[in-house]
Amino acid sequence: MKNKYLVIFEELEAAIYSGKYPANTTLPSENELAEQFETSRETIRKSLNILAQKGYIQKMKGKGSLVLDLQKLQFPISGLVSFKELAEKMGHTSTTFVESFSKQKASPRLAKEMQLNPDDLIWKILRVREINKEKIILDKDYIVEKYVPDLTVDICKNSIFDYIEHHLNLKISFARKEFTVEQPTEEDYQLLDMEGFQAIVVVKNYIYFDNATLFQYTESRHRPDKFRFVDFARRSEL
Fold first, then answer.
1. Cα(226)–Cα(179) distance, rounded to whole angstroms?
2. Beta strands per DSSP E along the chain
């Protein structure tokens, strides 16, 4: 059974997404929420802290909890979530277009980065992500074929993570991420609706199974006006 503060967090999260608590308004006070959910203020504080950590609210001293604008898609920096999961959670209409799909040998640079054997093959996939009729993400995926066999274009249009976890019954555990802001390439301008933007946010993901096997490298290129990358950091003494 879930802890009560997690249940309350999920209910408040759903209420924010549904528009019950619009952006730039405040949530009910801690006392009001404690009465509504029949719990203690301490439990409510735990729920509100999670909302704040995930970028839904800003706790204002003496003013309560301000609901933040969620129009930008929120990518959790320290989390590992698929595009399909993110779009569904945000309630957006999304489509994935597979621009290219092939099985081949990795380049020497990629083979070294992914710790591949000389005879290992990779899936090379180029996907464009469309949200609300705008093409705003370009994903370049490189997946070790021996770990993820029988991949198809239809699987890539749906969710590779879903295929790995629910059809191959493998556990995706963690990722190492690198963030940069770069000038868009000709490919970015060709495949994405860049609308004159002169920068693109690049997220490089090295993704591992729970046995610490690196099975996927993805370079994900995001139009900068549509996303905010959120995380929670706690100060500690060095």
1. 16
2. 57-60, 64-67, 73-76, 94-105, 121-131, 134-144, 172-182, 200-209, 214-222, 227-230
85 in the same domain as 60: no
Helix then strand count (H, E) for the chain reads 8, 10
Dihedral angle of Cα 32, 36, 41, 47, to the nearest 10 degrees? -110
Task: For residues 111 and 142, state if they share a domain.
Answer: yes
SS3 33: helix
Alpha helices in 54-147 (DSSP H): 83-90, 108-113
What is the rounded CA–CA span in Å between residue 214 and residue 232?
26
Residue found by looking up tokens 């380049």 in the block: 107
Low-confidence ranges of the chain (pLDDT < 50): none
CA distances from 182 to 10, 62, 197, 223 (A): 36, 41, 11, 11
Q: What is the CA radius of gyration of the chain?
A: 20
Q: Is there a single domain that holds both residue 24 and residue 110?
A: no
Q: Cβ(172)–Cβ(205) under 8 Å? A: no
Mark whether 13 and 109 lie in a shared domain. Answer: no
Domain-terminating residue out of 67, 87, 110 = 67
For 1-58, write each residue's pLDDT tens digit.
779 999 999 999 999 988 899 987 999 999 999 999 999 999 999 999 898 877 788 7
Residue whose token pair is 């569904």:
88
Tokens representing 68 are 């933040």
